[in-house]
Amino acid sequence: MKKLISSEIAAAMNNASWIRKMFEAGNELRKTRGADNVFDFSLGNPDVPPPEKARETLRALADDAIRPCGLGYMPNAGLPEFRAGLAAKLSREQGVSLEAKHVIATVGAAGALVALFRAILEPGDEILVPAPYFVEYGFYCGHFGGKLIPVPMRGPDFALDPDALLAAVTPRTRAILLNSPNNPTGAIYPEATLRRLAAAIDTLNADRDRPLFLLSDEPYRVFAFDGAAVPPFLRLSPWAIVLGSFSKSLSLAGERIGYIAVNPALEGADTLLAAVTLTNRTLGYVNAPILGQRLALALLDECVDLAPYAERRRAMADMLTAAGVRFAMPQGAFYFFPEAPGGDDLAFCQKLLEGGVIAVPGRGFGMPGHIRLCSAVPMDTILRAQPAFEAACK
Asked: Whole-model pTM?
C-alpha cells in the first residue's frame, strides 16, 4: 500500500487515545448487548443542559444572524465586546486587572494551547506536565517539535509536587503546564503550593533569555466540591498564562469557545498576544465561532447546575467503595482515577468490559495501574453498573 500519510501521524494513529479506543469499544458492545446493558464511563461529555438563558439567547441570535455580515469575518482575536466582557469576568476571577487586549478568543482551550505552543516553541523545547495528565497535551506541543515531559506525582491524592517539577527543568524547558481541577484525578492544587512553584519560576527567569512560562489549563474551574476552591492563578506570577473554555461550565463543548489570558505584568505581553493572534489565524482557526462567542457573552455570569454533578460524584464514590476499589475522592472536575484491582489497568478494563462497563486504562494518562471513570453520566448508569463492578473486582 502506498504511503498516504506521514510516519509521525501513522505512529500516532497506532497509539490512538485510550479514551477514544474505549469509547469505540463501547459502540461495538452496544451492538451485541444493547444500549441499556452498556455502562459507558469513558468520555467526558458534559450532559447537564446549558443554563435556561441559552434558549432565549439563541432565539435572539437567530434573528441577528441574518443581517449583512451577521455571520461574517471578525478580528482574529475575537469579537471586541466578547473580549471586553471576558476580561472583566477574568479580572474578578483571577485577581488581576485585565483589559480586552489581554484576552484572545480561541477554538476551545485546546485551540488556545495549540496557538500558544505555535507562538513560543522551537523544535526540541520541553513542556513539563504533572502525571497523570490529559494525553492530548503531547500532540498539542508535538505538532511544532515540542516534547512533553511527564513528571509523576506521588501519593494517593496525586498532590502537586513543585520540587519534582523544578528538578525536571532543563535549559530547553519552555513551560510547566498545570490542569486544576485535574483531568483525570480531580485534584485541585492549593494556592500555597502554586505560590511556591511560581516564586521559583520567577527566580529562574531572572537568568533565562527564553523565559519559562507557567500555564494553567482551566476548563473545569467551576467544578469544585465539598467546600474546595480553585485559587486565582494569573496573579501568581508575571509569567502566568491561563487557558480556559466554556465547554464544561456552560455545556457548550461542541461550540468550541475558549480563551487565553495573559498577565499584563508579563514583559513583552503585547508581543506575545500579537503572536498568538497570528498563530490563531495561520493555524487555520481564523477566529473562534461567532455564534458561540455571542452566546458565551450573554452567559458570562451563568453556570450549569452543578448539583447533578455533585450527586453523581457521591454515587460513584459509594459504588467504588462497595466494590472494594481504592480511590482518592476527587475534589473537582467529574472524573475518578481509582487503583486497578490487581495492579493491571488493561486487564481490569477488560474484565469490566465483559460486564458491559467501559473504563479507560490509566496508562492512557501516563499512569498505569489506575483507571479513569467519568461521572458525567446519568445516575441510572452508575447505579446499574455496580453489580458489574463488584463482579469484576472479585
From this structure: 0.94
Within 10 angstroms of residue 265's Cβ, the number of other Cβ atoms is 13
Secondary structure (3-state) at 181? coil
Task: Report whether pLDDT(34) > 90.
Answer: no
Q: What is the DSSP string of 307-320?
A: HHHHHHHHHHHHHH
Positive or negative, the CA dihedral 108, 363, 41, 26 is positive
Q: What is the mean pLDDT of residues 249-258?
A: 95
Q: Where are the beta strands (DSSP E) in 170-249?
A: 173-179, 213-217, 240-245
- Set of cell numbers at residue 118: 505555535
Would you say 234 and 240 are in contact if contact means Cβ atoms under 8 Å apart?
yes
- For residues 289 and 107, the answer to whether their CB atoms sit within 8 Å is yes
Q: Quote the CA–CA distance of 223 and 356 in Å, as a whole number.
A: 28
Residues composing the chain? 394
pLDDT at residue number 69: 67
Among residues 100, 133, 106, the alpha carbon closest in space to that of 118 is found at 106
Q: Is the pLDDT of residue 5 over 90?
A: no
Q: How many helices (H) and strands (E) does the chain have?
A: 13, 12
Q: Which three cell numbers stand for residue 282?
A: 495561520
Domains and CATH numbers, the chain: 7-50+305-393 (3.90.1150.10), 54-298 (3.40.640.10)
- Work out the average pLDDT over 327-347: 96
Band of pLDDT at residue 4, cut at 50, 70 and 90 = confident
Q: What are 148-161's pLDDT values in tens digits?
A: 999 999 888 899 99
